[in-house]
Design goal:
The chain has about 230 residues and is an alpha/beta fold. The protein has six helices and eight strands; from the N terminus they run βααβββαβαββαβα. The strands form two sheets. A six-stranded parallel beta sheet has the order 2-1-5-6-7-8, with helices on both faces. A two-stranded antiparallel ribbon has the order 3-4. The radius of gyration is 17 Å and the shape is globular.
Length: about 230
């Protein structure tokens, strides 16, 4: 019997990152998922000014998915006039159409916040976003009032929320708060900070979650809402 094909996940990087940088920083995760899931990163549409830490050659500029102020972003800011989100939603829709089919999404930090918004639109039946699940690492809900509509109704799409207990960039409480916007979220806590973990315990949790969506398997029974099999909530 032929093995099931790997799942394909569209991967959305964090603020001031890029598709290339996300690929570089997910080597351990891609190895852990080899044969089970493939990550396909894309660039956010908005280029940011380079800093001293960025690529000196300038061929891989930092990028962002939306702004809370002119050319800036703060996750905790209740931005009165956020900019750039519609272009990013269009970029995700285009990637899904042009490079698909995709089974789900993986997002990190601001990319995970965007992925959660995509999940909300998908749950409402938006045909631009044909995905079945999301893995959200260091995610948060946008504080911008203009984005509040994404969270008004429970988001009925399967989700795995990966939360760093010592994350100093996106506080664990923000990620858990977003998880409660989903119907029956699975929350995986780890003791680390602002990165995508891929140690043995996390690998087990990723594979267990993704197994529910393997082609030909059908959707397995969901864990209880909020259950984190590899870490305390």
């Amino acid at each position: 019997m032929a093995e099931a094909r790997p799942l394909r996940l569209l991967a959305l990087h964090g603020y001031r990152q890029s598709a290339r940088r996300l690929r570089q920083r997910t080597g351990a995760l891609r190895k852990a998922l080899r044969g089970r899931a493939e990550l396909v990163p894309i660039d956010a549409p908005h280029r940011l000014p380079a800093s001293a830490e960025d690529d000196p050659d300038g061929d891989d500029p930092p990028r962002g998915w939306w702004f809370s102020g002119p050319g800036t972003f703060e996750a905790g800011e209740a931005a009165a006039a956020p900019a750039g989100l519609e272009e990013s939603l269009s970029a995700v829709a285009a990637a899904l159409a042009e490079h698909g089919p995709f089974d789900g999404l993986l997002g990190f930090s601001q990319g995970a916040a965007l992925a959660a918004m995509v999940c909300a639109l998908r749950a409402r039946g938006d045909p631009r976003f044909p995905v079945a699940f999301a893995v959200l690492v260091a995610a948060f809900a946008s504080r911008a009032p203009a984005h509040g509509h994404f969270y008004r109704e429970p988001i009925a799409l399967p989700s795995l929320h990966v939360v760093g207990d010592t994350d100093a960039v996106i506080a664990a409480a923000l990620s858990r708060e977003l998880a409660q916007c989903f119907v029956e979220p699975v929350v995986l806590s780890h003791p680390g900070g602002h990165f995508i973990p891929a140690a043995a315990a996390q690998k087990k949790a990723y594979l267990e979650f993704l197994e529910r969506f393997s082609p030909g398997q059908g959707q397995a029974e969901r864990p209880e809402a909020g259950e984190a099999r590899e870490g305390a909530l």
